[in-house]
Amino acid sequence: MGRSPIYTCMIVEDEELIREGMKMGIDWSSYGLTLAAAAADGKEALELAVRLRPDIVLTDVVMKEMDGIELVRRLRTDIPDKDIRVIMISGHEKVDYIKSALKLQVIDYLLKPFHDEELGDVLRRVVASLDAERKQLERVRILERRLGHEEVDPNGSDQRKSVRAVKAYIQNAFREELTLAQLAAQVHLSPNYLANLFKKETGVTLNDYITEIRLAEAKRLLREEPGILVFDVAERVGYKDGKYFTKLFKREVGLNPSEFRERV
Protein backbone atom coordinates (compact mmCIF):
# COMPACT_ATOMS: atom_id res chain seq x y z
CA MET A 1 0.00 0.00 0.00
CA GLY A 2 1.35 3.44 -0.98
CA ARG A 3 1.91 6.43 1.26
CA SER A 4 0.75 9.97 0.69
CA PRO A 5 3.18 11.75 -1.66
CA ILE A 6 5.21 14.39 0.18
CA TYR A 7 8.35 14.65 -1.97
CA THR A 8 8.81 15.57 -5.62
CA CYS A 9 10.90 13.79 -8.23
CA MET A 10 12.09 14.68 -11.73
CA ILE A 11 13.23 12.35 -14.54
CA VAL A 12 15.92 13.40 -17.04
CA GLU A 13 16.28 10.97 -19.95
CA ASP A 14 16.90 11.71 -23.64
CA GLU A 15 15.52 8.39 -24.92
CA GLU A 16 11.77 8.93 -25.25
CA LEU A 17 10.79 5.28 -24.83
CA ILE A 18 12.75 4.96 -21.59
CA ARG A 19 11.51 8.33 -20.32
CA GLU A 20 7.88 7.51 -21.00
CA GLY A 21 8.32 4.01 -19.62
CA MET A 22 9.64 5.41 -16.34
CA LYS A 23 6.87 8.01 -16.17
CA MET A 24 4.11 5.46 -16.64
CA GLY A 25 5.69 2.28 -15.33
CA ILE A 26 6.77 3.35 -11.85
CA ASP A 27 4.23 3.71 -9.05
CA TRP A 28 5.73 6.92 -7.69
CA SER A 29 3.10 7.41 -5.00
CA SER A 30 3.98 4.05 -3.44
CA TYR A 31 7.34 5.61 -2.50
CA GLY A 32 5.76 8.83 -1.20
CA LEU A 33 6.71 10.69 -4.37
CA THR A 34 5.02 12.91 -6.93
CA LEU A 35 6.56 13.01 -10.40
CA ALA A 36 6.92 16.76 -10.92
CA ALA A 37 8.46 16.76 -14.41
CA ALA A 38 10.25 14.74 -17.09
CA ALA A 39 12.94 16.41 -19.20
CA ALA A 40 14.59 15.25 -22.41
CA ASP A 41 18.03 16.74 -21.68
CA GLY A 42 20.10 18.45 -19.02
CA LYS A 43 19.44 21.97 -20.24
CA GLU A 44 15.66 21.55 -20.05
CA ALA A 45 16.03 19.78 -16.70
CA LEU A 46 18.03 22.64 -15.18
CA GLU A 47 15.41 25.21 -16.18
CA LEU A 48 12.67 23.04 -14.68
CA ALA A 49 14.66 22.33 -11.51
CA VAL A 50 15.30 26.02 -10.83
CA ARG A 51 11.54 26.62 -11.05
CA LEU A 52 10.21 23.43 -9.42
CA ARG A 53 13.00 22.70 -6.90
CA PRO A 54 12.46 18.91 -6.81
CA ASP A 55 13.62 16.80 -3.87
CA ILE A 56 14.98 14.02 -6.11
CA VAL A 57 16.40 14.03 -9.64
CA LEU A 58 16.79 10.78 -11.55
CA THR A 59 19.04 11.53 -14.52
CA ASP A 60 20.75 9.85 -17.43
CA VAL A 61 24.46 10.61 -17.86
CA VAL A 62 25.10 10.80 -21.61
CA MET A 63 22.86 13.42 -23.28
CA LYS A 64 23.44 15.84 -26.15
CA GLU A 65 22.17 19.02 -24.51
CA MET A 66 24.14 19.18 -21.24
CA ASP A 67 25.11 15.76 -19.90
CA GLY A 68 24.14 14.41 -16.49
CA ILE A 69 27.44 15.28 -14.83
CA GLU A 70 27.21 18.93 -15.87
CA LEU A 71 23.54 18.99 -14.88
CA VAL A 72 24.36 17.86 -11.35
CA ARG A 73 27.19 20.37 -11.12
CA ARG A 74 24.78 23.13 -12.13
CA LEU A 75 22.13 21.93 -9.71
CA ARG A 76 24.69 22.27 -6.91
CA THR A 77 25.76 25.77 -7.96
CA ASP A 78 22.51 27.24 -9.30
CA ILE A 79 20.30 25.93 -6.47
CA PRO A 80 22.79 25.93 -3.57
CA ASP A 81 20.11 26.34 -0.91
CA LYS A 82 18.48 22.98 -1.62
CA ASP A 83 20.10 19.58 -1.12
CA ILE A 84 18.65 17.81 -4.16
CA ARG A 85 19.18 14.05 -4.04
CA VAL A 86 20.48 12.80 -7.39
CA ILE A 87 20.33 9.25 -8.73
CA MET A 88 22.24 8.62 -11.97
CA ILE A 89 21.33 6.01 -14.57
CA SER A 90 23.60 5.07 -17.46
CA GLY A 91 24.52 2.36 -19.92
CA HIS A 92 28.17 3.35 -19.50
CA GLU A 93 30.28 1.74 -16.81
CA LYS A 94 33.08 4.26 -17.25
CA VAL A 95 35.24 4.95 -14.22
CA ASP A 96 35.45 8.67 -15.06
CA TYR A 97 31.67 9.03 -14.96
CA ILE A 98 31.42 7.19 -11.66
CA LYS A 99 34.25 9.23 -10.10
CA SER A 100 32.63 12.48 -11.22
CA ALA A 101 29.30 11.35 -9.81
CA LEU A 102 30.88 10.54 -6.45
CA LYS A 103 32.56 13.94 -6.27
CA LEU A 104 29.18 15.58 -6.82
CA GLN A 105 27.66 13.55 -3.97
CA VAL A 106 25.31 11.56 -6.18
CA ILE A 107 23.25 9.11 -4.09
CA ASP A 108 23.59 6.14 -6.44
CA TYR A 109 24.70 5.16 -9.95
CA LEU A 110 22.49 2.58 -11.65
CA LEU A 111 23.62 0.78 -14.81
CA LYS A 112 21.13 0.17 -17.61
CA PRO A 113 19.31 -2.09 -17.93
CA PHE A 114 18.33 -2.18 -14.27
CA HIS A 115 15.52 -4.04 -12.56
CA ASP A 116 12.58 -2.22 -11.04
CA GLU A 117 13.62 -3.68 -7.68
CA GLU A 118 17.02 -1.99 -7.92
CA LEU A 119 15.49 1.43 -8.53
CA GLY A 120 12.85 0.77 -5.88
CA ASP A 121 15.52 0.02 -3.27
CA VAL A 122 17.34 3.26 -4.07
CA LEU A 123 14.14 5.34 -3.99
CA ARG A 124 13.15 3.87 -0.62
CA ARG A 125 16.60 4.68 0.76
CA VAL A 126 16.48 8.27 -0.50
CA VAL A 127 12.97 8.83 0.83
CA ALA A 128 14.04 7.39 4.19
CA SER A 129 16.89 9.93 4.36
CA LEU A 130 14.47 12.75 3.50
CA ASP A 131 12.09 11.50 6.19
CA ALA A 132 14.88 11.41 8.77
CA GLU A 133 15.99 14.93 7.93
CA ARG A 134 12.43 16.22 8.06
CA LYS A 135 11.91 14.63 11.48
CA GLN A 136 15.16 16.10 12.75
CA LEU A 137 14.13 19.55 11.59
CA GLU A 138 10.70 19.17 13.19
CA ARG A 139 12.27 18.10 16.51
CA VAL A 140 14.45 21.21 16.47
CA ARG A 141 11.45 23.40 15.75
CA ILE A 142 9.47 21.83 18.59
CA LEU A 143 12.40 22.35 20.96
CA GLU A 144 12.69 25.98 19.91
CA ARG A 145 9.00 26.55 20.53
CA ARG A 146 9.24 24.96 23.98
CA LEU A 147 12.30 26.89 25.08
CA GLY A 148 11.58 30.15 23.31
CA HIS A 149 14.18 31.63 20.96
CA GLU A 150 15.22 34.52 23.21
CA GLU A 151 15.37 32.30 26.29
CA VAL A 152 17.97 30.08 24.68
CA ASP A 153 20.35 32.96 24.06
CA PRO A 154 19.16 36.57 24.33
CA ASN A 155 22.47 38.02 23.10
CA GLY A 156 22.82 36.05 19.88
CA SER A 157 22.23 32.33 19.56
CA ASP A 158 24.46 29.62 18.18
CA GLN A 159 22.11 29.62 15.23
CA ARG A 160 22.88 33.27 14.52
CA LYS A 161 26.59 32.55 14.85
CA SER A 162 26.19 29.77 12.28
CA VAL A 163 24.43 32.13 9.88
CA ARG A 164 27.13 34.78 10.36
CA ALA A 165 29.81 32.15 9.71
CA VAL A 166 28.09 31.04 6.50
CA LYS A 167 27.75 34.64 5.34
CA ALA A 168 31.45 35.26 5.96
CA TYR A 169 32.37 32.07 4.10
CA ILE A 170 30.23 33.06 1.10
CA GLN A 171 31.74 36.56 1.03
CA ASN A 172 35.22 35.02 0.83
CA ALA A 173 34.45 32.10 -1.49
CA PHE A 174 31.71 33.36 -3.82
CA ARG A 175 34.06 33.07 -6.83
CA GLU A 176 34.14 29.30 -6.34
CA GLU A 177 31.44 26.72 -6.95
CA LEU A 178 29.31 26.72 -3.80
CA THR A 179 26.99 23.91 -2.82
CA LEU A 180 24.57 23.59 0.05
CA ALA A 181 26.40 20.53 1.37
CA GLN A 182 29.69 22.46 1.33
CA LEU A 183 28.20 25.42 3.22
CA ALA A 184 26.49 23.14 5.74
CA ALA A 185 29.77 21.34 6.42
CA GLN A 186 31.35 24.66 7.43
CA VAL A 187 28.98 24.96 10.39
CA HIS A 188 28.34 21.24 11.04
CA LEU A 189 24.63 21.34 10.21
CA SER A 190 22.53 19.25 7.86
CA PRO A 191 22.07 20.94 4.46
CA ASN A 192 18.30 21.35 4.60
CA TYR A 193 18.40 22.53 8.21
CA LEU A 194 20.93 25.21 7.26
CA ALA A 195 18.77 26.32 4.32
CA ASN A 196 15.74 26.73 6.58
CA LEU A 197 17.75 28.38 9.34
CA PHE A 198 19.35 30.89 6.96
CA LYS A 199 15.97 31.90 5.51
CA LYS A 200 14.49 32.22 9.01
CA GLU A 201 17.32 34.42 10.33
CA THR A 202 17.91 36.61 7.25
CA GLY A 203 14.60 36.65 5.39
CA VAL A 204 16.33 35.56 2.15
CA THR A 205 17.37 32.19 0.77
CA LEU A 206 20.99 31.11 0.56
CA ASN A 207 20.69 31.15 -3.22
CA ASP A 208 19.45 34.75 -3.20
CA TYR A 209 22.22 35.81 -0.82
CA ILE A 210 24.93 34.23 -2.99
CA THR A 211 23.42 35.90 -6.07
CA GLU A 212 23.38 39.26 -4.28
CA ILE A 213 27.08 39.00 -3.35
CA ARG A 214 28.10 37.85 -6.83
CA LEU A 215 26.14 40.53 -8.66
CA ALA A 216 27.48 43.25 -6.37
CA GLU A 217 31.01 42.21 -7.38
CA ALA A 218 29.96 42.00 -11.04
CA LYS A 219 28.69 45.58 -10.90
CA ARG A 220 31.97 46.71 -9.34
CA LEU A 221 33.98 45.04 -12.10
CA LEU A 222 31.81 46.55 -14.82
CA ARG A 223 32.21 50.02 -13.27
CA GLU A 224 35.94 49.86 -12.54
CA GLU A 225 37.24 47.79 -15.47
CA PRO A 226 35.60 49.23 -18.62
CA GLY A 227 37.37 46.88 -21.03
CA ILE A 228 36.53 43.63 -19.25
CA LEU A 229 34.54 41.06 -21.25
CA VAL A 230 31.16 39.98 -19.90
CA PHE A 231 32.28 36.34 -20.05
CA ASP A 232 35.29 37.20 -17.86
CA VAL A 233 33.06 39.03 -15.38
CA ALA A 234 30.89 35.92 -15.16
CA GLU A 235 33.86 33.67 -14.43
CA ARG A 236 35.33 36.05 -11.85
CA VAL A 237 32.13 36.11 -9.83
CA GLY A 238 31.51 32.36 -9.88
CA TYR A 239 29.48 31.65 -13.04
CA LYS A 240 31.00 29.38 -15.69
CA ASP A 241 28.10 29.90 -18.10
CA GLY A 242 28.24 33.43 -19.53
CA LYS A 243 24.74 33.20 -21.04
CA TYR A 244 23.24 32.17 -17.73
CA PHE A 245 25.07 35.02 -15.99
CA THR A 246 23.76 37.58 -18.51
CA LYS A 247 20.20 36.27 -18.13
CA LEU A 248 20.47 36.35 -14.32
CA PHE A 249 22.00 39.86 -14.32
CA LYS A 250 19.19 41.17 -16.56
CA ARG A 251 16.54 39.56 -14.35
CA GLU A 252 17.93 40.98 -11.11
CA VAL A 253 19.27 44.37 -12.26
CA GLY A 254 16.85 45.19 -15.08
CA LEU A 255 19.71 45.71 -17.56
CA ASN A 256 22.09 43.27 -19.17
CA PRO A 257 25.79 43.69 -18.22
CA SER A 258 26.65 45.68 -21.35
CA GLU A 259 23.74 48.07 -20.84
CA PHE A 260 24.68 48.48 -17.18
CA ARG A 261 28.27 49.35 -18.11
CA GLU A 262 27.13 51.98 -20.63
CA ARG A 263 24.94 53.71 -18.05
CA VAL A 264 27.41 53.93 -15.17
TrEMBL record:
The keyword Transmembrane helix does not apply. One of its GO terms (cellular component) is cytoplasm. Residues 8-127 form the Response regulatory domain. It is found in: Cytoplasm. Residues 164-263 form the HTH araC/xylS-type domain. Its main location: cytoplasm. GO terms for biological process: phosphorelay signal transduction system. Keywords: Cytoplasm, DNA-binding, Phosphoprotein, Transcription, Transcription regulation, Two-component regulatory system. GO terms for molecular function: DNA-binding transcription factor activity; sequence-specific DNA binding. The modification 4-aspartylphosphate is found at D60. This is Two-component system response regulator YesN. The lineage of its organism: Bacteria, Bacillati, Bacillota, Bacilli, Bacillales.
